[in-house]
Structure formats: C-alpha cells, structure tokens
C-alpha cells in the first residue's frame, strides 16, 4: 500500500520501462504480441504434430462447432476481463507493467483469474475447432504452466503489492472455479 494513500486497493506504481507510452497503445501492443503468440504462432507450431504424425490426429467432426462457440465466448470474455482490469486497475495486465489498483469488480467478483481462465478456454476451443491433437497438447501444457505462473509468481506479487486487501479478496474469491454469487468487497 502506498503510505500516502488511504485506499488499501492502491499501491505505489511499479515503474514501467514503457510508462511514457500511453496505456491504450501499450495494451494494444501487449495484446497483439501476446495473443499473436499464444493463439496463432504456438497453435500453428503445435498443430504441426497433426501434420507430421497423422496417427495422433483425432477428427472431431461436428464437435468442432462446440470448439468454435467455446473459442468465441471465451475470447469475448477474455477481452472484457482484460478491459476491466486495465481500466479499473489503472495499468496493464502484465507483470512488468502491472495495474496500480486491486480490481475486485466485474468478473473479478466471481473468480480471481478470469483472464487466464478465459484464455485457456480460448485455447481449448481452438484445439476442438481445429480438431488438433497438437493444439490440445498445447492447451494441457498451458494449463499446467498457467497454474504455476499464478501460484508461484502472480499471487505472491499481488500479496506483496496489495497486502491485507489482497488477502481478504483471496479468502473470498476462488482462484479458478467461479463463485455462484458475486463477492461484495467491504
């Protein structure tokens, strides 16, 4: 908590090497770069498993439609959660340029990591819609890596940055499985 600020959800800003660039421009750059990597470049690379080892390919048939719907819904929710975090958190959603305020509104009242959860949903939808064993393998790898990133890196940094306010939030809002009712911050 910033000692000059009585808001426990606000913290001293972590200096960003890109702080001189307006936030919307930084977010556009981060989103295009990150999403281009995890939803285009890496799936293409993992899909090569299906191309080069056809025996591992499993055709999903009509179930591909479920994948398309899952991808569209998850990606839309990912975009909305990213917007809420950036707008309300007054910063980007990357650890080297993090938000300066703890966000406990919108989808964050139901689950602590909606961005990661919806991105994983997008990956799973992509794997199903492409009927790609390779992309499904990528999803499984990212599932494990995401959990490790959240538990080993993100949560300790949030606790350090926001202290008791984050502990209170963490005690009431689950990490991955959403609450049925929204949490109301005190």
Compose a concise summary of this entry.
The chain has helices spanning 23-52, 64-89, 114-130, 133-162, 164-172.
H/I helix tally:
5
SS-derived structural category:
mainly alpha
Count the E strands.
0
Largest sheet: none
Strand percentage lies at under 5%
Instruction: Write down the secondary-structure element order.
Output: HHHHH
Q: Radius of gyration from the CA trace?
A: 18 Å
| Shape verdict | globular
Instruction: Assign a percent range to the helix content.
Output: 55-70%
Uncertain spans: 1-6
User: Termini separation (Å)?
Assistant: 17 Å
Spell out the blueprint of helices and strands.
Layout (H helix, E strand, L loop, with lengths): L22 H30 L11 H26 L24 H17 L2 H30 L1 H9 L14
Helix pairs in contact: 1-4, 2-3, 3-4, 4-5
Can you walk me through this structure?
The chain is mostly helical and 186 residues long. Helix content is 60%, strand content 0%. The chain has 5 helices and no strands. α2 packs antiparallel against α3 and α4 (133-162) crosses α5. The model is unreliable at 1-6 (pLDDT under 50).
Keywords:
mainly alpha, 186 residues
């Amino acid at each position: 908590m910033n000692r000059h600020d009585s808001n426990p959800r606000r913290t001293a800003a972590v200096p960003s090497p890109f702080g001189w660039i307006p936030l919307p421009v930084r977010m556009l750059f981060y989103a295009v770069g990150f999403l281009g990597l995890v939803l285009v470049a890496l799936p293409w690379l993992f899909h090569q498993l299906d191309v080069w080892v056809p025996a591992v390919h499993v055709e999903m048939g009509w179930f591909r439609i479920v994948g398309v719907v899952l991808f569209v819904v998850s990606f839309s929710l990912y975009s909305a959660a990213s917007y809420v975090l950036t707008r309300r958190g007054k910063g980007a959603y990357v650890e080297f340029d993090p938000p300066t305020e703890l966000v406990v509104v919108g989808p964050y009242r139901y689950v602590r990591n909606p961005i990661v959860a919806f991105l994983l949903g997008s990956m799973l939808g992509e794997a199903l819609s492409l009927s790609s064993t390779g992309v499904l393998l990528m999803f499984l790898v990212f599932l494990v890596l995401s959990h490790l990133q959240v538990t080993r890196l993100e949560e300790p940094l949030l606790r350090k940055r926001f202290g008791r306010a984050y502990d209170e939030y963490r005690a009431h809002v689950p990490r991955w499985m959403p609450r049925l009712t929204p949490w109301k911050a005190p």
